[in-house]
């Protein structure tokens, strides 16, 4: 192989990306041309009111539609005319003011800017046009005459939309004065060309695409994106589960809890003692029999004592009985007269394997293999915790009483101590 | 102050029950709060109608003057502010439809002037200005919000319920011309009572906009179902391929060992 080959997957991705980009471009172009094609010419009756307004404006530059006649009284009209004359004198541009309702079913579809544009197109007269609608909105557009720079922009909204006729005359005069003072001769800016809304298509749904559902895009997305991800996810689940389980097992040694409730201790102790009894019954000539027998006596009596006493929590005593019973069973199972003491960190881990220095305890202690391999900083979290006499979880080596007297499990032969504690000789 | 009123301190007996001098809490305790507040809750909302706003100069009264002055010249008045809702021959068609119904019919097709049309406020004013003899119809260009008032000698010829029958039989937004033509047809049919009952009980027919929206939604949900199926198929296919590939690889690895 002399030249590097692009892997087949990368080549496929390139092709897919290129196809996607091309599709997007084509779609954009198509939608743009489609929008242009849909703009139909206006029917002739759309211009009916424009012609009426245009004809009236030819005689009088201030036009108030008879339907809105009450909006401007005689005095108001005089004031507006005065302002119009002043503006024309100052700028040299003709000024036309139209007071007209512009509902959404008008020829301009309620768009005041479109109305002024259509009016200018229809009448062909250059002027500074001002439209005042029934809702109090004032729109102005300068066609072919000096425009107004953006300083002092007034959006023409009525200050209070619930009272659109409030101070209407003042606002119109203000608009005209703004033109008079703000008009600049150096530029005649034509307002942006607007397209009137297409006729008879006002209620069309927004999306004009009627070519049915897209199949390729979701299929490819599933095939190339979601599918592989899902497959990898499913592949990863069993190993992940196994890893989590193994971690937990490693952490606790052999399914030993970190926090043992008295109930757990008493049940486990009872189980171990029963098991020890059974093992003892079958033992014959076992070197560990002596140890196991003493262990059984002590543990069994201790457990009975705890059970009889009821009330107080005696986790330390339960732990003593449990650990001793286990050691007894181990003595029989391994045929060992000196079974190992339990792991110091967590006696429920099982028999200890080697010594290691324990932080905070000074001397080295015997611990199980897992604890021996654990890093120093992790040891504190591996301690067994049981209830103290007030019911709070404490580290087992902080307990007093019988458990402490047996060295927190480290004493090799605790049985005599236990019997002495119980008052049995 | 002769009354033995202990000052309310945090530890005084009545403190935890609230200050009894506060009328709201005492009203609350006696269950009077809702009845006291009910008038405020029932006040109408902010939708403007021509009658409500005193500050707006265009009132039902001024509109009635204007329409009456137009009716004196021509009994059918059609606004030119709404060409998108009305066909070019609207006036001719309405005139023809209401021609020989047995009584003079006055029709005013109104634009929406800042607020929705309040025909019920307008019609009595119009009747007073027009000598109260005939049928007076006022409606919006879209055909909605129309009302009719039959007055004087016309009550003998034209049933009161004819207008409502026509209104209910048609979908909304069909346009003023269609509603007036239907009204004339109902009057001419003479079967007003039965048709009125049928129209009132039946559901209003769906408007064109409603039908278009329903079809649009149906199409979109069908599209969506197809697209999700395609997605699911693609996902299943390639996930299956990945799993199969891994399985086969594991197998060959095992046999190779």
Please specify the SSE layout and strand pairing.
The complex is a heterodimer of chains A (425) and B (257).
Chain A: H1 8-38, H2 48-59, E1 62-64, H3 74-91, E2 95-99, H4 112-123, E3 127-132, E4 138-143, H5 168-182, H6 216-252, E5 259-260, H7 262-282, H8 289-309, H9 315-334, E6 354-357, E7 364-367, H10 369-373, E8 385-387, E9 393-395, H11 401-405, H12 415-422
Parallel strand pairs in A: 1-2, 2-3, 5-8
Antiparallel strand pairs in A: 3-4, 6-7, 8-9
Helix pairs in contact in A: 2-4, 3-5, 7-8, 7-9, 8-9, 8-12
Chain B: H1 23-29, H2 33-42, H3 60-73, E1 76-78, H4 90-97, E2 105-110, H5 119-129, E3 134-140, E4 147-151, H6 162-169, H7 176-189, H8 192-201, H9 208-256
Parallel strand pairs in B: 1-2, 2-3
Antiparallel strand pairs in B: 3-4
Helix pairs in contact in B: 3-5, 4-7, 6-7, 6-8
Tags for this entry?
heterodimer; A: 425 residues; alpha/beta; Diaminopimelate Epimerase, Chain A, domain 1; 2 domains; four-stranded mixed beta sheet; three-stranded mixed beta sheet; elongated; B: 257 residues
Order of helices and strands of chain A: HHEHEHEEHHEHHHEEHEEHH
- Mean pLDDT of chain B, to the nearest integer, reads 83
Helical residue percent of chain B? 40-55%
The CATH class of the largest domain in chain B, by name, is: Alpha Beta
Greatest contact between two chains: A-B, 55 and 51 residues
CATH architecture of the largest domain in chain B: Roll
Q: Tell how many strands the DSSP assignment of chain B holds.
A: 4
Largest sheet of chain B: 4 strands, mixed
Note the gap between the termini of chain A.
89 Å
Number of structural domains of chain A: 2
Q: Terminal Cα separation of chain B, in Å?
A: 107 Å
Number of strands of chain A: 9
Largest sheet of chain A: 4 strands, mixed
Helix and strand content put the structural class of chain B at: alpha/beta
Helices of chain A, by number, come to: 12
Give the strand content of chain A: 5-15%
Give the proportion of residues in helices of chain A.
Answer: 40-55%
Radius of gyration of CA atoms of chain A, rounded to a whole number: 48 Å
């Amino acid at each position: 192989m002399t030249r590097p080959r692009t892997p087949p997957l990368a080549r496929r991705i390139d092709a897919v990306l290129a196809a996607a980009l091309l599709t997007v471009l084509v779609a954009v172009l198509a939608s743009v041309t489609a929008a242009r094609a849909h703009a139909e010419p206006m029917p002739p009756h759309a211009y009916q009111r424009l012609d009426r307004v245009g004809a009236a404006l030819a005689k009088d530059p201030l036009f108030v539609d008879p339907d809105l006649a009450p909006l401007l009284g005689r005095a108001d009209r005089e004031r507006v005319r005065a302002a119009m004359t002043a503006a024309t004198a100052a700028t040299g541009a003709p000024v036309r003011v139209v007071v007209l309702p512009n509902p959404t079913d008008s020829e301009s579809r309620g768009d005041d800017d479109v109305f002024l544009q259509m009016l200018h197109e229809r009448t062909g007269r250059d002027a500074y046009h001002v439209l005042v609608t029934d809702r109090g909105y004032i729109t102005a557009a300068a066609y072919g005459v000096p425009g107004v720079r953006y300083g002092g922009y007034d959006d023409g909204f009525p200050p209070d939309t619930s009272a659109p006729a409030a101070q209407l005359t003042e606002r119109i005069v203000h608009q005209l004065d703004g033109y008079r003072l703000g008009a600049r001769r150096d530029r005649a800016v034509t307002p942006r060309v607007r397209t009137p809304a297409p006729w008879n298509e006002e209620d069309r749904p927004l999306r004009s695409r009627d070519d049915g559902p897209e199949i390729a895009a979701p299929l490819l997305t599933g095939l190339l994106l979601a599918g592989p991800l899902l497959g990898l996810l499913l592949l990863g689940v069993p190993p992940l589960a196994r890893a989590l389980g193994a971690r937990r097992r490693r952490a606790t040694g052999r399914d030993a809890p970190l926090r043992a409730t008295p109930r757990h201790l008493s049940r486990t102790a009872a189980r171990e003692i029963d098991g020890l009894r059974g093992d003892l019954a079958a033992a014959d000539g076992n070197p560990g029999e002596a140890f196991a027998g003493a262990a059984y006596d002590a543990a069994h009596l201790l457990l009975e004592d705890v059970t009889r006493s009821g009330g107080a929590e005696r986790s330390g005593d339960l732990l003593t009985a449990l650990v001793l019973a286990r050691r007894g069973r181990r003595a029989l199972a391994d045929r060992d007269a000196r079974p190992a003491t339990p792991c110091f960190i967590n006696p429920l881990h099982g028999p200890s394997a080697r010594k290691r220095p324990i932080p905070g305890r000074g001397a080295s202690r015997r611990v199980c293999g897992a604890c021996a391999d654990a890093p120093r900083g992790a040891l504190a979290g591996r301690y067994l915790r049981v209830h103290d006499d007030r019911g709070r979880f404490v580290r087992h080596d902080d307990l007093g009483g019988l458990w402490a007297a047996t060295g927190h499990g480290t004493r090799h032969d605790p049985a005599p101590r236990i019997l002495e504690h119980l008052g049995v000789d | 102050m002769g009354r033995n009123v202990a000052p309310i301190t945090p530890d005084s007996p009545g403190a935890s029950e609230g200050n009894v001098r506060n009328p709201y809490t005492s009203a609350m305790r006696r269950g009077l709060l809702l009845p006291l507040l009910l008038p405020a809750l029932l006040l109408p909302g902010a939708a403007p109608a021509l009658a409500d706003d005193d500050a707006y100069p265009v009132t039902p009264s001024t509109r009635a003057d204007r329409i009456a002055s137009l009716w004196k010249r021509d009994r059918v008045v059609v606004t030119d502010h709404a060409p998108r809702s009305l066909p070019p021959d609207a006036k001719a068609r309405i005139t023809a439809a209401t021609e020989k119904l047995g009584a003079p019919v006055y029709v005013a097709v109104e634009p929406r002037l800042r607020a929705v049309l309040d025909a019920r406020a307008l019609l009595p004013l119009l009747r007073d200005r027009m000598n109260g003899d005939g049928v007076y119809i006022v409606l919006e260009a879209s055909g909605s919000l129309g009302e009719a008032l039959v007055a004087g000698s016309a009550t003998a010829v034209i049933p009161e319920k004819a207008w409502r029958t026509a209104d209910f039989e048609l979908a909304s937004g069909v346009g003023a011309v269609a509603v007036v033509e239907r009204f004339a047809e109902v009057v001419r049919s003479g079967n007003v009572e039965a048709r009125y009952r049928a129209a009132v009980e039946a559901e209003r027919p769906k408007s064109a906009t409603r039908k278009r929206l329903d079809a649009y939604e149906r199409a979109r949900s069908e599209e969506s179902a197809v697209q999700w199926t395609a997605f699911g198929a693609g996902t299943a296919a390639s996930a299956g391929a990945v799993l199969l590939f891994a399985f086969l690889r594991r197998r060959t690895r095992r046999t190779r060992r």
